[in-house]
Amino acid sequence: MTQPQAATADTTTQPMVAVTDLRRSFGTGERTVHALRGVSFTVGRGELTALKGRSGSGKTTLLNLVGGLDAPTGGSIALDGIDLASLDEDGRLALRRERIGFVFQSFGLIPMLTAAENVGVPLRLRKAPAAEREERAHTLLALVGLADHANQRPGELSGGQQQRVAIARALANQPSLIIADEPTGQLDSETGRSIMELLRAVVRSEGVTVLVATHDPTLMGLADRVIEVRDGRIVEEEAEQAA
Q: Which residues form the ABC transporter domain (predicted)?
């Protein structure tokens, strides 16, 4: 097993994410689909960066590669000073468990578990003691404004509340990076904005870096930077004024 090891250089001077000439193709011959075509960018520590683009532009493929859920056809990814290509599958699994939190459009909560138990799942996988899991879960639910809903199950919560639980779960192992794929896609515009404001607050309070894919232009003003992906390429990069 190749364990993720941070680079020996001072990582505080390195970007949290460094993507260089990243390429990803699917299929072979005439049926080859080029999902990413030489993408390069960096994400600074403690930064909220938004990826925008239409469906099929390559945003989700890019997030999966940065999160170590998929391997590129070419190019390189460094996360927190670690070259992902240097890791085997066990090493990538350890990286995801220890350094990355994921938030998905579909929430991904376990229906039979309470909100607190869902938040504690990453800690359970790490074999953390029950008392530590419970304390961390309640701290994080308070952070996302759900301290009074710890014992409710997902079916008893609204969509916005479920996504707040998912964000709390993503923070359970104190990750360096949160990757969020269309986290407001199933929510109304007002609830979606509150979720983006929560991610903005998490960046400030927890010191975590967030890379989020969204197609909603009204939410991009809360990001530090906006990167547009079109047909597998970056075509535009904007600095935004965070609210």
A: 17-243
